[in-house]
Write a structure and sequence with these properties.
Keywords: ATP-binding, Cytoplasm, DNA damage, DNA recombination, DNA repair, DNA-binding, Helicase, Hydrolase, Nucleotide-binding. One of its GO terms (molecular function) is ATP binding. Its main location: cytoplasm. The protein is an alpha+beta fold and about 200 residues long. The chain folds into 3 domains: about 60 residues, Beta Barrel (OB fold (Dihydrolipoamide Acetyltransferase, E2P)); about 70 residues, 5' to 3' exonuclease, C-terminal subdomain (DNA polymerase, domain 1, Orthogonal Bundle); about 50 residues, Helicase, Ruva Protein, domain 3. It is built from 10 helices and 5 strands. Strands 1-2-3-5-4 form a 5-stranded mixed barrel. Helix 2 packs across helix 3. The longest helix has 15 residues. It is elongated, with a radius of gyration of 19 Å.
Length: about 200
């Protein structure tokens, strides 16, 4: 199994890149965000997830371990193959995906090509609680599912016109500061202060 490739970036296409490692070109599929950060002719190191099927061996590349770990979690969900997982990671980075799953923000997940409302809901349900500090990469703690005060604060911020990711981050930070027992008004006041910064 290939776990990492380090070499010269030969070329970048719409969905993949060719990495030249000592004269051998490896075709590596990657998310739009990863491919957008690559420049042909430069040295590159990618973390690799190798998928072996009956008819093919496919390499998926990631600039960070958090992105690779998010990919592994996504492909563990029924109906999510490598291409769909890359499409999701092209729209949401690991921390954004963790927040979307924690807050059941299926609309953000469904923005990816090939992801409908049903699949987005399955992803949010199956991966709830599986994204830890590694995926968040030091971002604000994820929201504890099942907390009605959190859900009410998110709904209120959405009603005020805040984007789902922005609202989720602000409420998560407020919850981390105030604790799980905080009521909706306290969460909302602190979340609004945090978004005003």
């Amino acid at each position: 199994m290939i776990a990492k490739l380090k070499g010269l970036l030969d070329s970048v296409a719409a969905e993949a890149a060719v990495i030249d490692v000592n004269g051998v070109g490896y075709l590596v599929s990657a998310s739009a965000k990863t491919l957008g950060g690559l420049t042909p002719g430069t040295s590159v190191t990618l973390h690799i997830e190798t998928q072996v099927r009956e008819d093919a061996i496919q390499l998926f590349g990631f600039l960070s371990l958090a992105e690779r770990d998010s990919f592994r979690l996504l492909t563990g969900v029924q109906g999510v193959g490598g291409r769909v997982a890359l499409a999701i990671l092209g729209v949401l980075g690991p921390s954004e995906l963790a927040h979307a799953i924690a807050s059941a923000d299926t609309a953000s997940i469904a923005r990816a090509n090939g992801v409908g409302p049903k699949l987005a809901s399955r992803i949010a349900n199956e991966l709830k609680g599986k994204f830890g500090a590694v995926a968040l990469g030091g971002a604000a703690p994820i929201i504890v599912a099942g907390n009605s005060a959190v859900a009410d604060a998110l709904t209120a911020l959405a009603g005020l016109g805040f984007r789902p990711m922005e609202a989720s981050r602000a409420v998560a930070e407020a919850q981390a500061e105030l604790g799980d027992a905080a009521d909706v008004s306290a969460l909302l006041r602190l979340a609004l202060r945090k978004t005003a910064k």
